[in-house]
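DATA SHEET
Item: assembly model
Revision: 1
Owner: S.N.
Input lines:
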Amino acid sequence: MPESRDPATGDVWKRYPVADAEAVAAAVARARAAQPAWAALPVHVRADAIHVFTQKLLARRQEAALIVARENGKPVGEALGVDVGVTLALAEHFAKAAPRFLRARWHRSTMLIAWRKRVTLVKEPHGVVGVISPWNYPMFLPLSSAIPALLCGNAVVNKPSEWTPSIAELVKECLHDAGVPADIFQVVHGAGAAGAALCDAVDKVFFTGSEATGRKVAQACARRLIPCALELGGSDPAIVLADADLQQAASGIAWGRFSNAGQTCVAAKRVFVEAGVYDAFLAALTAAVRQLTVGPGTADDTDVGPMIRPEQRATIAAQHADAMTRGARELLRLEVPPGDCYFPPTILVDVPADSRPMTEETFGPLLPVTKVRDVDEAIARANDTTQGLSASVWTADVTRGIAVAQRLHTGSVLINDACTSAGICDVPHGGFKASGLGKVHGELGLQECVRTKAIAVDWFQAWRQPWWFGYGAQHRTDIDAFLRAAHSASLMDRVRALPNVLRLVFSPSRKV
Ligand code: NAD
């Protein structure tokens, strides 16, 4: 059953009934009935509702941050700055950007076949979209798709993670209070079965979660031939070049890996350091991580909270054990309070390339650091993974950093920063390789929320269409001339073809 459980204490403080397949289908049916009227509203009316939503959420920001801390485990300040902060920024951004994006556009075609047509491109909503979301950033991840989808005229049914149901309820209340109709934004609670039922009912799925579940969602959508956008896991590399500011790199990578107890899709999960600065970087990193306080998210001085569930802790412990059995060494392991969700923030060195932390996504506070000969080896090791979500490069030479970024097989690269690529809401976010399909954020994120229709109007009905029936020897000669006029490299050839082209176009003869 979906429940809000404090990972620090194990206390369950709220439970929600599961929506079975019938309830999910009924929610989608209600959304489908309400959606045409929502889509028919002028876009500025929908944008006004989202602007009001930001004010409703701003007013409840402390309450929202506390809920996130109490069901996810992260520090309240982190929930306020990242979860609430990014949500407000993305809602404001999309409310401003959507009206311009949705404007119908004339398209000037350069194709000869379209020379007498006026083409307009219009963007229409998909209908009812399903948003299936994880627990690690349980506000802004679902809303990264839900807000632009609503603005584009879709109805949204959100299936939040069964581990963070309460924050989804708060978001729903804020949207409804802001004027989004109850049937246009709905929340259905449940685990995998509810998510699968949603995939069976909606017109498009936005999924954020693990690669394994993403593959199931993609298969379910393929069976119904409906589109899906998938934001999946990452095994992100951080490359520290010899000229980097090592204090800065150490602080950034410590935050990038250990914030949210390491449970961040774009966290730095494998660090590669040029040999010349390896020891100095390790010293700086160890000093930075040693200062972190591990404790409950609700305590003011906590930097790193518990992981969300004992099963997540068990996975990271197994990955850690695999590395240790194969010869890795622990450089640092912090003390943690008692509790079955705490995993000690740990720095590993000498981690074999075929061990689990180097070949799988690690979703917890475990950081393997590897010495590399030079930048070429760093890039080769960084790219040696099936995933390609994001990456970071640490260097004093920005031009060199950008050159390295261009060689990395990831959807985004930060130079001298960590994690923030997923929170810059006007820039597309989405992985390469097994890290996903499609994008959220930016104009590409809006594009995922619509289907584009081309409307072509023929303005010269009195003139014959050269390719309609009226075939014969003369027609063939004229069509041949048409091709030469359009595509010949020789100007003379084009000019010679013109009389036939004029006859083809202006002759009134038409067989059928
Ligand atoms: P998960 O795959 O276990 O669950 C995600 C959601 O899918 C949950 O709501 C779950 O109930 C639902 N679900 C489970 N089985 C389903 C099925 N068969 N059909 C439909 N829905 C189903 O992932 P998680 O543990 O909640 O999240 C962590 C993962 O998410 C990590 O791999 C992380 O990297 C990834 N993630 C990616 C991004 C990104 O932007 N790329 C962002 C955040 C998290």
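QC remark: The domain at 237-424 is CATH 3.40.309.10 (Aldehyde Dehydrogenase; Chain A, domain 2).
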